[in-house]
Design brief:
heterotrimer; A mainly alpha; B alpha/beta; C mainly alpha; B: alpha/beta; Rossmann fold; 6-stranded mixed β-sheet; 5-stranded antiparallel β-sheet; 11 helices; 11 strands; 38% helix; 24% strand; globular; C: mainly alpha; MetI-like fold; 3 domains; 18 helices; flat; Phosphate import ATP-binding protein PstB (chain B); ATP binding (chain B); P-loop_NTPase (chain B); phosphate transmembrane transporter activity (chain B)
Chain lengths: 406, 292, 451
């Protein structure tokens, strides 16, 4: 109700300011002939000067005011804030209105403001990264006041206990989780790389354009499926099927295991690898292919000995991105990996991963004072650092590769 | 307007070709070709009534020609006249283009090469190709040369391979320049060196015919001169067909010249004759720079 | 073959090559077969995935309904008449009286009413009350109460009412549970199972399309009546937040980077940032949301507004990258033409370049929204996995989301029933995403055709 009213007043201010600028400059145009800028720019500029200060004050108050304001003076403070916001708005309007003249370059100023706005949009990406780094680092440092980094990064036992038992009593060893993550990602890549790469090779080198246009989107459907669906698929279908298959051969494979999660994650990553490799392979110049075929090589010899080696850096980049995605994947492992944080070699056994543990330690808990929940941020920091390195390396390799053939 | 002109030209061409058939050009016994200053050469490649289509579009109209062995034949003509397309028929590189179709007769040593029963792998080992832009593989110089012999299984030992690499590089006149960096990447060579490397790469599988598709168009004059020299040397052992849009180049390196225009063969004969006293007016016009 | 003109070593070489050709062609065929096998494997995965979801999920859209002759028995429903407005009575007082009356209605033993109706439907089945009631979903009594509250005139009348069968009865009738299992492992007692079978045979129980899946909210006490309405609204609010925030920010950012940004370190840094953010695991965004939005700004837990903010940050890189490629597809000649006519850079971009890319921007938006719609992990960290039994009225109220609802349902103890339910929810989610993607593809082809 209240916010509706404020919005309405803001809109009124906006409309009034624009109208003021527009009509004043139009009248001026009748007297003085041509103006430097069209009236709409004068109107827009006045509107900006009126609305921005008001919005700034209201925004700051909305962000920080609620946290600090004393309940007893809430009505009073909000009245003061609103009055000052609209007051500054009115002052801005008045000042901007007085600047209107025939020579005044309103368009240039509006365009400059637009450009600042666009820069502001771009800076959001930097702020996001900064926010991620600062929040993860801050909370992780708080965690390290409870548990030493050495125990965390090199500990082989994960058993955090519950926060109610007493702080700092559990074991927070990262290695079992890291091992599970690496094992599942490895299985996923082992599944996805041959299938994805051969798919890309076939679609780029052999398939007729028509076939390609049908099959490519069909495989890319896999990329659009939410990960929770894959998780459910792993839990309900793949896990029991693998367990049954294992039993047939006398192997003990659990329904929820590293193998289950890894295979399903591999399926999820297939389109990722296939479309990235597709792009990369198609960037290999046709001249190389012709050169090899012209020497009498068969198509597969050309692909294996010329095209794939030439595309190798790009494919490596694609695989690095795929690995980064695999280690950051959450829902599949939450549902299908079995959540059992022990160092085990057998992929048929349940494991746990960094992402699963983040979910387990933080779900529904907003009290960030115990190491049991703060550890989620230390884990998140580890995850972020790992994916950052992989992503940057992949970006660098792929960029170098593009430059080579441009 | 343009279409009408083109039609006229085609009409004219038909008449001219009919005339050409009546002259001695095509009535010669087709096993040898006489060229001034040369021994009569046996025919290496014989083409009769060749048509090439890309989808609906016809790129080559009814071309017949004989290519002499161990001599350089140049295909000249304005760009888009179909000379490259025709060249690519000789090792069936047109197969790699979706929707292309070739009919007529092309024989290599008396055996049809359009016939699908002839394996394209075998054909291309006998008819090598050098492309417009140097296209060395992104591997070492050594590996580039070794590529052909390796895939065809021509070598048994490392020593064999070393020998082939050295011999091919020597034949291409490149050995002395690169002998100290055989294992450096080939893309580091200069454009002219790269093109000679590509020629060496083609030679390494000992082809009988080498097709060159405007091999000097991406090179500077000095590198061009070097490659032209090389072509002249190679003539001793190989049948060479070179496509070029530079008439000077054709005059310098070739013994026989064929002039193409709009997908038709306009005139063919000893290079000297084509350049000094062409029988067809269009050839004369092209050579003197009236069009092209 | 007459190789008369070839030299001797050349001839030897030809025979070597010819000897190896069969083997090389076999290798070529094998390689091709690997390619086809890889594609088949990928397509099989697609087929099994969708097949499994459809096979399990489609039956859940039909649920057992029990059609009972309900007699609003005055013997059981002993409540006074509904209070009517009296002259001189304040509205507040009337409301208070009516509420008291409704409380009385709620206290009525509606189970007895239902039980009587069941007995009438199958008079010869020997069964005790508890067992008989176990085949009707527990929300049945509230339905009867609501009917009565709305129309007290029903007292003493007999009405045909459709009540949902309980989840256990639904399981049994659909054969989701092995019929040969011993009593101890069955969810329903033997008489209740016999009753359900009997009623199905007589047509009293019928399978009907489960509209309530779309209109009801989640429910724990009455699982058969659980629906997706709450989760759907939650997701809708989040999508709105994403569209309102991510699209302007993303398009603005893309315009700056593609059209205005000078080539320098700073621009490079932004680009690396965006490309990296596009590949940061989604759960990290969840941690960001938990630490910044919840812990620092004290925004409400489980609220779609927070989920929307987190998803906005997550989809921003996607939208920026897709919009940039749309901008890059605009031919430079268009910009040069506009600049040549004296338009400023800004005018060129906003009046000439941007309008051409609208379909591309729309596609980028849809890709981003679809990505946000399917995301689960970050939402778990900001408390959206709480059980919420109401449709959120505003983005600031507690809510859940479609993918989170799927996560919650798959974890329900009543495995037999909720496996199908979960699959049905997945079908709904996938249908929404397919619809979004179909629109994106349609727009993209239209864009490409126009080019």
């Amino acid at each position: 109700m209240n916010s509706m009213l404020v919005t309405l007043v803001l809109l009124l201010l906006l409309g009034f300011a624009y109208q003021t600028g527009w009509s004043r400059s139009s009248r001026l145009a009748q007297v003085e002939g041509r103006l430097h800028s069209k009236p709409i720019y004068h109107g827009a500029l006045v509107a900006i000067w009126a609305i921005v200060p008001a919005l700034l004050i209201l925004g700051l108050w909305a962000l920080f005011g609620t946290a600090t304001a004393n309940t007893r003076f809430r009505t009073l403070t909000s009245a003061v804030v609103l009055a000052s916001a609209f007051g500054t708005g009115a002052i801005g309007l008045y000042l901007a209105r007085n600047r209107i003249s025939a020579r005044f370059r309103a368009r240039n100023e509006v365009e400059r403001i637009i450009r600042y706005l666009l820069i502001g949009c771009s800076v959001v990406a930097i702020l996001t990264t900064l926010g991620i780094v600062l929040s993860l680092l801050g909370e992780a440092l708080r965690f390290f006041t409870f548990v030493s980094p050495v125990d965390f990064f090199f500990g082989t036992v994960w058993n955090p206990r519950f926060s109610s038992v007493g702080t700092g009593s559990g074991d927070f060893g990262l290695l079992p989780l890291l091992w599970g993550t690496v094992m599942i990602a490895t299985i996923a890549i082992l599944v996805a790389l041959p299938i994805g790469l051969m798919t890309a090779v076939y679609l780029t080198q052999y398939a007729k354009p028509k076939t390609r246009n049908i099959i490519k989107p069909m495989i890319e459907v896999l990329a659009g499926i939410p990960t929770i669906v894959y998780g459910f698929f792993a839990l309900v279908t793949v896990g029991p099927a693998l367990a049954g298959l294992g039993a047939m051969f006398g192997l003990d494979i659990r329904a929820t295991s590293a193998l289950t999660a890894g295979i399903v994650m591999g399926v999820m990553i297939i389109p990722f690898i296939s479309s990235l490799s597709d792009d990369v392979i198609r960037q290999v110049p046709r001249a190389l292919r012709d050169g090899s075929l012209g020497l009498g090589a068969t198509e597969s010899e050309t692909i294996r000995r010329v095209i794939l080696p030439a595309a190798l850096p790009g494919i490596v980049g694609a695989v690095l991105l795929a690995v980064s995605r695999a280690i950051g994947e959450t829902m599949i492992v939450v549902l299908a990996a079995g959540n059992s944080p022990y160092l085990r070699l057998n992929p048929g056994e349940p494991v746990s991963t960094v992402t699963v543990t983040i979910v387990n330690q933080l779900t529904g808990d907003t009290d960030f004072s115990s190491p049991q929940s703060l550890v989620a941020f230390a884990l998140g920091l580890t995850l972020f650092a790992m994916t950052l390195v992989l992503n940057i390396a992949a970006l660098f390799i792929v960029r170098r590769y593009r430059e080579q053939y441009e | 307007m343009m279409n009408a002109l083109r039609e006229d030209l085609t009409q004219m061409n038909m008449v001219v070709r009919q005339l050409a058939v009546d002259t001695d050009l095509y009535t010669l016994p087709s096993t040898t070709i006489r060229t001034p200053d040369l021994e009569p050469q046996p025919v290496k490649i014989k083409a009769r009534n060749v048509n090439v289509f890309y989808g609906e579009k016809q790129a080559i109209h009814d071309v017949s020609i004989d290519i002499p062995e161990k001599a350089v034949t140049a295909f000249i003509g304005p760009s888009g006249c179909g000379k490259s397309t025709f060249l690519r028929c000789f090792n069936r590189m047109n197969d790699t283009i979706e929707g292309s179709r070739v009919d007529g007769l092309i024989e290599l040593d008396g055996r049809s090469i359009i016939d699908r029963s002839l394996d394209v792998v075998e054909l291309r080992a006998r008819v090598g190709m050098v492309f417009q832009k140097p296209n060395p593989f992104p591997k070492s110089i050594y590996e580039n040369i070794a590529y052909g012999p390796r895939i065809h299984g021509l070598v048994r030992s490392k020593a064999d391979l070393d020998e082939i690499v050295e011999r091919s590089l020597r034949k291409a006149g490149l050995f002395d320049e690169v002998k100290d960096r055989l294992h450096d990447t080939a893309t580091g060579l200069s454009g002219g060196q790269q093109q000679r490397l590509c020629i060496a790469r083609a030679i390494a599988v000992s082809p009988e015919v080498i097709l060159m598709d405007e091999p000097c168009s991406a090179l500077d004059p000095i590198a061009t001169a070097r490659v032209e020299e090389l072509i002249d040397e190679l003539r001793e052992n190989y049948t060479i067909i070179i496509v070029t849009h530079s008439m000077q180049q054709a005059a310098r390196v070739s013994q026989r010249t064929a002039m193409f225009h709009l997908g038709n063969l306009v005139e063919e004969g000893p290079t000297e004759k084509i350049f000094t006293s062409p029988e067809v007016k269009r050839t004369q016009d092209y050579i003197t720079g009236r069009f092209g | 073959m007459s190789d008369t003109s070839s030299s001797l070593p050349q001839q030897r070489q030809h025979s070597t090559i010819r000897a190896g050709i069969a083997k090389r062609h076999a290798r070529e065929r094998r390689f091709r077969a690997y390619g086809i096998a890889a594609i088949c494997a990928a397509l099989t995965a697609v087929a099994i995935l969708f097949g499994m979801i459809l096979y399990k999920g489609v039956p859940a859209f039909w649920q057992a309904n029990v059609e009972l002759e309900i007699f609003f028995d005055p013997e059981i429903i002993k409540v006074p008449e509904r209070p009517q407005p009296q002259p001189g009575q304040s509205p507040a007082e009337l409301e208070k009286q009516q509420l008291a009356w409704e409380r009385q209605v709620t206290m009525v033993n509606w189970n007895r009413v239902i039980k009587a109706a069941i007995r009438k439907a199958a008079p010869d089945v020997e069964i005790d009350t508890k067992q008989a009631l176990s085949i009707i979903e527990t929300n049945g009594r509230y339905e009867l109460r609501d009917m009565f509250v709305n129309d007290p005139g029903l007292l003493g009348q007999t009405v045909t009412v459709n009540l949902l069968a309980s989840a256990n009865a639904d399981n049994w009738l659909k054969g989701n549970i092995d019929r040969n299992l011993p009593d101890a492992q069955q969810q329903l007692s033997a008489p209740a199972r016999a009753l359900a079978d009997r009623l199905l045979e007589e047509g009293t129980i019928r399978f009907a399309f489960a509209w309530h899946l779309f209109t009801n909210v989640d429910s724990r006490s009455a699982p058969a009546s659980a629906g997706l309405a709450g989760a759907f609204m939650g997701s809708l609010y989040m999508m709105l937040v994403v569209i309102v925030l991510a699209v302007p920010l993303g398009v603005g950012s893309a315009i700056y980077l593609e059209e205005f940004a000078p080539k320098n370190r700073f621009t490079d840094f932004i680009e690396v940032n965006i490309n990296n953010l596009a590949a940061v695991p989604s759960i990290v965004f969840g941690l960001l949301g938990a630490a910044v939005f919840i812990n620092f700004f004290h925004l409400p837990l489980s609220a779609p507004i927070v989920g929307g903010l987190v998803l906005t940050l997550m989809t921003l890189p996607t939208i920026i990258i897709a919009t940039r490629s749309a901008l890059r597809a605009v031919p430079p000649s268009l910009r040069q033409a506009a600049l040549g006519l004296g338009a400023s850079k800004t005018q060129t971009v906003f009046h000439h370049v941007l309008p051409v890319t609208y379909p591309g921007v729309l596609t980028a938006t849809i890709i981003g929204v679809a990505q946000a719609l399917g995301e689960t992990a970050p939402l778990l960290l900001i408390g959206m996995n709480a059980f919420v039994a109401a449709v959120p009225g505003t983005p600031f109220e507690q809510s859940t989301a479609l993918p989170v609802q799927i996560f919650l349902w798959q974890g329900n103890e009543n495995r037999n029933f909720f496996e199908a339910r979960t699959s049905a929810a997945i079908i709904v989610l996938l249908a929404l995403m397919l619809a979004l993607n179909a629109i994106a593809i349609y727009l993209r082809t239209r864009l490409e055709r126009r080019k």
